[in-house]
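Exam prep: given the inputs below (a chain plus flavin mononucleotide), describe the expected output before reading on.
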Amino acid sequence: MSDEATLERVRPLLRARQVREFTPEPPTDAELEALTEVARWTGSSRNSQPWRFIVIRDRASIKGIHDAGVPQTRSLLTAPSAIAVVLDGDEGDVEHAFDEGRAAERILIGAGLLGLAAGIAWINPVARAEAARILGLPADRFVRAIVPVGHATEAAQRPKSARGAARLPRSETVFNERWPQG
Ligand SMILES: Cc1cc2nc3c(=O)[nH]c(=O)nc-3n(C[C@H](O)[C@H](O)[C@H](O)COP(=O)(O)O)c2cc1C
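Solution:
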C-alpha cells in the first residue's frame, strides 16, 4: 500500500473528476493554449497523432453541439469553452479511440492543474454529423469526444458521493500477481 506522503504526490490525479456545470467565466487564452499544448503532446499509437483540436469559445456553437447530443453532451449547456478532439479515419478504429481517450483525459487533468474544471462528453453517432457541420469539418474527419472547460459552479464542486465511494473498493479492483482464486 502507498503511504500517505506518496499518495499525496499523486493527489492531483486522484482529484481529477468530471465536471458538468460551469460558471460563465471563460478560461483565459493562455489557459486554453496551455491545455492544447498538453493535448497535442499526448502520446499516440505509433506517434500517429490522429487528432486535431478545435478550441471553441463561441457559445452558439457549443450550444448547437449540446442540443444535437443531449443527454451525453449536457455538460456543454453551461460550458464557456470546449476543446473538440477531431479524428481522422474510421470511427471503429480502436487505436484512435485509445489515443482520443488519452488526449481527452490529459486535457481534463491539465484543467485541474490550472485550477479549472473540465469534463468528457461523447457525441453520440446520430449527433456527429451536426457537430461536424457546426465545426466545419471536412468529410474525412469526425468528432466524438468534446471536453468542456471552465470554472466549476459551487454545486459542481461539491462531492458527488461519500468520500471514497465513487469507485469500486480497492479490494475488488487491484490484485497482486494473479487473479484472485475462489
Ligand atoms: C470514454 C468516455 C466517455 C464518456 N462520455 C461521457 C458523456 O458522453 N457524457 C458525460 O457527461 N460524461 C461522459 N464521460 C464521463 C464519465 O461519465 C465519468 O468519467 C464518470 O462518471 C466518472 O466521473 P467522476 O470521475 O467525476 O467520478 C465519459 C467518460 C469516458 C472515459
